[in-house]
Amino acid sequence: DVEIFAVGVKDAVRSELEAIATPPTATHVYTVEDFDAFQRISFELTQSIWLRIEQELKSIKVKSLTPPRDLSFAEVTSSSFRVSWSPAAEDAIAYLVNYTVALGGEEFVVSVPAPTTSTVLTNLFPKTTYEVRVVAEYPEGESPPLKGEETTLEVRGAPRNLRVTDETTDSFKVGWTPAPGNVLRYRIAYRPVAGGERKEVTVQGNERATTLYNLFPDTKYHVSGVPEYQSGPGTALNGNGATEEVVGEPKNLRVSEPTTSTAMRLTWDKAPGKVQRYLRNLHSRSAGGDIKEVTVKGDTSTTVLKELDPGTAYTLSVNPLYASGAGTAVTGEGATLQERGSPRDLIIKDITDTTIGTSWTAAPGMVRGYRIAWQSLFDDKTGENHVPGDTTNTVLRNLDPETKYRLSVYANYASGEGDPLSGEATTEASPDGKIVKISEETETTMKATWQPAPGNVLNYRVVYRPRAGGRQIVAKVPPAVTSTVLRRLTPLTTYDISVIPVYKEGDGKTRQGSGTTLSPFNAPRSIKTSEPTRSTFRVTWEPAPGEVKGYKITFHPEGDDGYLGEMMVGPYDSTVVLEELRARTSYKVNVFGVFDDGQSPPLIGHETTTLRDAPRSPIPSSGLDCTTKAQADIVLLVDGSWSIGRPNFKIVRNFISRVVEVFDIGSDRVQIAVSQYSGDPRTEWQLNTHKTKKSLMDAVANLPYKGGNTNTGSALKFILENNFRPGVGMREKARKIAILLTDGKSQDDIVAPSKRYADEGIELYAVGIKNADENELKEIASDPDELYMYNVADFSLLTNIVNDLTENVCNSVKGPGGLNPPSNLVTSEPTPRSFRVTWVPPSQSVERFKVEYYPVAGGRPQEVYVRGTQTTTVLVGLKPETEYYVNVYSVEGNEISEPLAGTETTLPIPSVRNMNLYDIGTTTMRVKW
Known about the structure:
about 950 residues, cell adhesion, Immunoglobulin-like, mainly beta, collagen, secreted, 9 domains, flat, 65 strands, 5-stranded antiparallel beta sheet, FN3_sf
């Protein structure tokens, strides 16, 4: 072989040099920048070449020395083996045995002097492969090595300390101390010492115990445990164990064949195991009773107990006896028989439709209980009750109504039942069965219906007569029929009706009822109660058919007829508010139609008052101030009928306050009178009564509630004759206005009085609430209806019309000759902060104009005044890009016109335009725009 050193100069590629040179490249490849640099590597290159020459000379010399031969291994154990070889040349001084784990690890050396050619390597790891090299030593050096490998055996041994624990009759637990080494499994063998089948189980090598099952009881076993290794079995560990004897208890102890005097038979199921004898104990349960013990053979399971006391209870036990001792006893009870008797004096009481109560005098002797049997005499239904021996009464339940039963009471003894005590009883009719139901009433007939009676009914006898007295009528009805029509009755009369089932043996339970024939007068319909408060609620109904003359309403707390309230309303009224009621109380309401010859049956309703009144929000002020020099006489005609009620009348007062508060009250301005009407109208105050607004507002706040029927026509006539006249404050040149507030249909004519208002030049406003008749309101109000007629569905909705009504009444006060507003509003010249407002003045001259403006989105109104000859102005100081309301008023003295209204929006702030940069330097420039 040729060993190559590679030297690269200047641009030589090192990877090519490494491919050419002999490994290792660290000592065989060199590079220099140019030829002048050879001096730098010459010493290192020369030294490497000389070192390799010395190594080759030494290798040649070693190869000339004779190595040992025929390496072999013997006596292999888990921690040692013997190494042997054939000798080398005669001049060998000694042998070096080098060994190490084949997978890597520390190397060990043993020197063996020549001519010995064998040695034992010790302290080795079990089941481990070792690499062994044997070198012969000569004076000139060491020979080449003789190499080989050997593997130690795995550790094998025996487990120790065999233990047997947890013995039962068919198992015990075997435990041991583990065997050394890597045990794969343990094989546990066992067989009875006295001989028998050998069995074995296998457990994992990491287990330290196992339980042997299905063993023979009371048997000694020989047990051995052998560890198994990968290389084979280890040494066995032997020992002995034994199961326990089977010990138990007999089962199902039974007493049979008791007699009245001396004996009873005792039987049981045998106890498990080898029972030698049974110990039988007998103990009287009475105080001071002796204990008797007798033994019988172990193969016996029955015995007769003799010489016992009659009528006596005994505690019994049977205990198995084994060679190892006593087992567990089974216990029971038994009793000899005693003489039997019967209860006496059967009493039947507390009978209802489904129950019968019974009691009796106790039977003699040791009674364990009573059985009470019952059987229907009408059908095959039967049943029974059971009570303890110290109880002498019971209630039979779930019986059929109106049924005859035979009852039997049996005394129950340990030896059986005595003779029965018997009797008979009949249940009452059921609550529904006692009742005759009345339906389909007319003026002269009614239908009677009842539940069928049980059993073999021959017929039903129907008896009826007027409750107030009169001739009794009797009818017979077939047994299959349970209803009949009673005829030839008197109208509006209450009858008492009885229905008696008739049997062959006699009469059954009577059914009773009552009914009233109809009135010839029809009742109102569809009653409805609503709007409950702490002391009031509303009652509404649909009118009764026919020529009704009015309605009577009675009411009282539920269950308290003594507190009966009553009121009358007219034929056109269909609603009323009941007042002065108790808080949180349920009331019954009756509404009768009243006719010339009598009244109808009642229409009945129910309602419950509340614990407290719900808060009501007052009607807000309109905010209007009716400023005018005009004079006006206003009369308010207020409906105070029962259909309004006090809570709603408070709302009416609040509504009147909101209407009248806008006017300037005085003898030279506006005067207001109020009249209230129902059945008969009355003046609350005249036009000239209140000279100031404060006095008027106080009077409105204290306006009393009148109550009564709704007679609107006579009320309109009343204020024409009593309020619109000079003697009570009416002024000839003042404008005359009437305002009607009503919640119902008028009971009298309204056409003629309404026409008189138009004829006399009085403007008439009509405000209807809730139940008002809209056609009637249009007939009453002045034209047009859009200005003079209002109708709302509820009192709480008056707040929705107060502003419009107040404004229209104010315009009526001002009259057609009032101050006219300007016209033709034009806005122009808008900027971000201003715009111009222009208008056309009214036909008459005015002192000045008021211009009011404020943002549409909300804000405080601002105003400016200009002379009456000026018809334009610029509003300044505004917000950019904002929409404004604008109102322009004509002003003359203290009088102000209606507004001329419009809107305008300011412009947004404009952005910069035409920006130019010039005179630009290194740190400055000029900007213009």
